[in-house]
Amino acid sequence: MRDFNHTRVIHYDRHDWAAGAFGDRIGEILPILATEPIKSINDAIEAHQSKLTVEDIPELFDKSDLLMLRDACSKAFKNACRYVRASLQENGIQSLYEDLEQQYIEQFWELLGSCRAANITRGEDLEALLSDHSCCLKYVLEIPAFVKRYDDSLRSIMMGEFEIAAELVITRLATVSTGSFAQRSITLPKSLTNDDLDEIMLAYLNGGHSNSNYVEVLTRWPDRLARSEYRPSPDVRVKAKRVYAESMRELFTDGNSMRFGTEVIIDMGQQACRGANVDGLNFTLTFSGQWLEAYMDSATVMNNCRWIFDFMDAKGLMQMPAHAHEERGVVAMLGVRVCGEYRENPASRRRGNSAFLETGAYAQFLERYGHSLEEDLEWVYASYFPDEFGISGFGISLPRREGSWLDRCKGIGSEIERAMKEYQLYARRGNIEDDYFAYEQFKSFASVSALGKRKYAIAGEEFETWAYPLFSDQSPLIVYVAGKKSDDPSFFDLMLSEGVTREDYQEPFCRSVDHLIEKGFICEDSATGQLKPTPQAYCLRLIWRSGGVVLKRYRNERRKIIDGLVAQDILKYHDGLFTPDEASYLNYMLNDSEQANALGLRNKYSHASSPVRDPNTDEMRFDYYTMLALLVTITLRINDELMDKTGRGAIEDFVDWPLYDESVFEAAKLTGCEKKAVLRGFWWVARTRSACR
């Protein structure tokens, strides 16, 4: 194989930042490749790559040249196919492969597929090539014509190369990838049976060199979402589960891992409602026992859940869900993503664990004083909603502390469903009638509508096109800036801290800067030429970070900006009770109908999905407080919705009490939080007997 040749044309998708890199070379070489005999496989591939670029991105070229270039594309491709066919017949596929330049391995197979080379490739030559270069198996399986013609040979090769075959089947049938790492579909030989694939997987698992990422996929194979060519047997699944468990034990005992912890303390000596401490990777949240003991009426308990504990953020969104762009850099690319899986990250796990631990701590604190968080939640539905909003028909009945943790887990799941059905009825009919309740079905949090239109703004079809270069830590505009060695995580932050100008970039990145200027996301300072983000960019950052914004919180100019971005398909309105991120999270935690790796806590205890030897395990206790935390969050969101609908429920009373102590600011510095977010409501705490917000 020849050395890498960086001057050769490679076709990049029109949305790729490197899409226009070879425009000039295509204009130079395409007429030559169209009129002169092609002399090497690399020239043939370059002709094909040039053709794909002209067809896919015609705007790269002058309109006056397009007609000539398209004609040249056709002729050059015919020359390429002629060369490939003659070479295959004369020298064989292995000779062609050995003459490749390193950058063209994938493109070689693309050309063979486009030239319909399967019929003139000798079977013994293909087998010899795959014997010497088994990594090419995936490219062969991407070409249906090759698979159809050499079915038995490919089956035999896959049975022998079980490590490559196993990881390839797992990757292509049960996982997804995005961006430049997106995988093409493969075709499996028809002669390859499900039993054959089980044999391959068991050989892989027993071989001692299995990758834990792929093994994990086998343990939670997404039957509903994976391609149907393969369904692992129970033997494969159980073996995979055991192999994966053993690999995790080795990982955590060899000192090759990092552990972080979250602790929640209710401190009777602390006055400020919230405190925090960061010790390495351990995070401790402290809450004032003085405040919590002083006010235990149901309304203040619910206000505490809204403003003091970590259920909702200052923007009115749930704290716990993961967001697509929280994972940065290489971390976002690690591992294997199962089809339809919910993708957590360390930050979202910490937020979720904080909320769950806080729920357990607060519930136990109230119990010591003869109160009950469950009774406070029942009060919201049975008394507060009718009295404050004039809405009857709501009501839940939560399990009592006398029961086992198993019984409490069974009981709370059905009440979460009851609360959602009641809200759905009210949203659809304007009232909650008992006769209709029996016919109400609740299937997914994503299907639940808000009471009004345009509740949220979320990412639209064109969001990534403009947000990625601004906010991603992999954006070329931060990677390829001249003379800068900044630690800033994004181009947006770089503009704020380093004072970059358009002249700091070379082509084609300078064109990217121009596109952002033309679109109105950045501007040039008239005096210094420095690039600055515009209010439109700040709006995009809100969506990038949180997955959505609550529109009622944005008025006047900011709302006009959001509406303008919606008109350009960069953002779009969302009318659900929950944002898509929130709905996915709730479905992941409570149901098992959407994600392959769903915890499905409600279904777990409703359907007796596992044996029970002890009804009071620590796992059951944590599951109960997790579901209780989710019910609290759902209740707060329903309350917000009823407030918006009726115009009632405003906070009536405030107590002059510090919300945060200085430890919060120190923790914020260590964890990278913005101080302005911490300062919100610093000197007061809401307390009222008639409102939950």
Structure description:
- This protein is mainly alpha-helical.
- The chain folds into four domains: 1-121, no CATH class; 145-257, no CATH class; 296-453 and 578-654, no CATH class; 456-574, Arc Repressor Mutant, subunit A, CATH 1.10.10.
- Helix content is 52%, strand content 6%.
- It has 30 helices and twelve strands.
- Strands 2-4-3 form a three-stranded mixed sheet. A three-stranded antiparallel sheet has the order 9-6-10. A two-stranded antiparallel ribbon has the order 1-5.
- Helix 2 (41-56) packs antiparallel against helix 3, helix 12 (212-219) packs across helix 13 (234-253) and helix 15 crosses helix 17.
- It is globular, with a radius of gyration of 30 Å.
- The chain starts with 22 loop residues before the first helix and ends in a 7-residue tail after the last strand.
- Identify the strand order in the major beta sheet: 2-4-3
The termini sit apart by 68 Å
Counted beta strands: 12
Number of helices: 30
How confident overall, as mean pLDDT?
Answer: 88
Residue runs with pLDDT of under 50 for 5 or more positions: 674-693
How much helical structure, as a percent, in the residues?
40-55%
Largest sheet: 3 strands, mixed
Number of domains: 4
Question: Layout of SSEs?
Answer:
Blueprint: H1 23-35, H2 41-56, H3 63-90, H4 93-98, H5 105-114, H6 123-132, H7 137-141, H8 144-149, H9 151-160, H10 162-174, E1 175-176, H11 194-206, H12 212-219, H13 234-253, E2 261-267, E3 274-279, E4 282-288, H14 289-294, H15 298-307, E5 337-338, H16 346-368, H17 373-389, H18 405-429, H19 434-437, E6 456-459, H20 463-471, H21 476-479, H22 491-498, H23 509-519, E7 522-524, E8 531-533, H24 535-546, E9 549-550, H25 556-567, E10 571-574, H26 580-590, H27 601-606, H28 618-646, E11 654-655, H29 662-671, H30 675-679, E12 685-686
Parallel strand pairs: 2-4
Antiparallel strand pairs: 1-5, 3-4, 6-9, 6-10, 7-8, 11-12
Helix pairs in contact: 1-2, 1-3, 2-3, 10-11, 11-13, 12-13, 15-17, 16-28, 17-28, 18-28, 20-24
